[in-house]
Amino acid sequence: MNAAPHVPPYAPGRVPLIGHAVPLARDRLAFLQGLREHGPIVRFSIGPKTVTVINSPDLLQEMLTTKSRHFSKGLLFEKLKLFGKDALPVAEGSRHLTRRRLMQPAFHRRQVDGYIRTMHTTVDPMIAAWQSMGPLDLKTEMQLMTQNVVMAALFSTTPDRESGHAILESVDTLFAAALRRALLPLPLLERLPTPGNRKVRQAGRVMRAAVGEIIADHLANPEAYDDVVSLLLSARDQDGAPLADEDILSEVTGLLAAGSETTAVTLTWLFHELGRRPDLERRLHGEVDAVLTDEPLTMRSLTRLTFTRRLVDESLRMYSPAWLVTRRATEAVRLGGVDLRAGEDIVWSPYTLHRDPALYPDPLCFDPDRWLPERPQPPKEAYIPFGAGKRQCMGNEFALAEATLITALIASRRRLRPVPGPAVRPVGEITLHPSALRMTAEPRTHGRRREAV
């Protein structure tokens, strides 16, 4: 006989009509972090809308793997269709499976090894340019760097700084609009000719124009390219027809947006921690000086940067960039003894999961050595910066290689020193980024200087 379903509690502090809107608006990170003490599944409300939060790694694993067929990507990903209606990051069902199979070869480990040289030659001059710049807005610099890496490696093009800024501002505008619309879903307001909506539409036009130029150049010079855009242009549907122009535009736009933002904020947090921890910085410098030689960088070279990689892993844990993830039950389903209704909106937070003291000793301490193999490790399902199951980010190898390489190259050439100012705090928008982080790039007086290969 089946046990009676458990009804998860609402978080305390619910106010008639507005629900938990006030604490959510005041500090959404602290609000979600505080929900853990109320159980593995807990609910909150925004106005009349109820949202179910999953706090347990076991239940998350169940939802994302064995019962994934009962869930769609949910409200946030619906709003991210601003970047492309049916692009792979937001596609559902058979379309998602077909596009994933099409794109997967471009992110195979062997293929990523081939991107290393491109990553290096793209990043190196950008690091060199810091010498003539004053204090850096580090998040912006990292966004420009990772955006250029994605465009160079996957699209065979690199914009100048002005064009890169225009693309970056458009991405930021669309991401901000997607989160705002997901947290306060009022579809009617999205269609009104308000200044904010006009800004969103203009950002979309800038993105489409930039991507459209890349595609047009590939069409005009097909023999000159062998990259992801070429792959999409040569792809055929099951009936033998080429992909529609809109589909190709959406896929390239989605890759550009998704492929750069999360790595950029991970690197921003990593160098913020190094700026506060000279002991960690010294260890990083020692490793890169020993490993980086005049030989071309490869994936094998990167595997020798073990401390560098642990810095990346710890940054992904403590400052999980994709801090909020949504799902929606497509049919009635039981999860951990709780009956979820069809249409129920669900959220989970890698940020709060990765800071759970029951899973991570001293979780608020930035400790890259927690990933040493001789140290006790958290359960596999408790560390999921790239998701899990069939929706796990297929670009995780690319992102980890990119973050490790950029960290090592910067450390071999520069010391990033914090500029005095307000305390840096995490801000939960579409990604988890610092409130403000300005740093100066000082040349290193010791260590091996590595030039572009």
TrEMBL record:
Annotated protein name in UniProt: Cytochrome P450
Annotated family: Belongs to the cytochrome P450 family.
PANTHER family recorded: BIFUNCTIONAL ALBAFLAVENONE MONOOXYGENASE_TERPENE SYNTHASE, CYTOCHROME P450 FAMILY 4
Native source species: Streptomyces edwardsiae
Heme is among the record's keywords: yes
UniProt lineage: Bacteria, Bacillati, Actinomycetota, Actinomycetes, Kitasatosporales
Transmembrane helix found in the keyword field: no
Keyword entries, A-Z: Heme, Iron, Metal-binding, Monooxygenase, Oxidoreductase
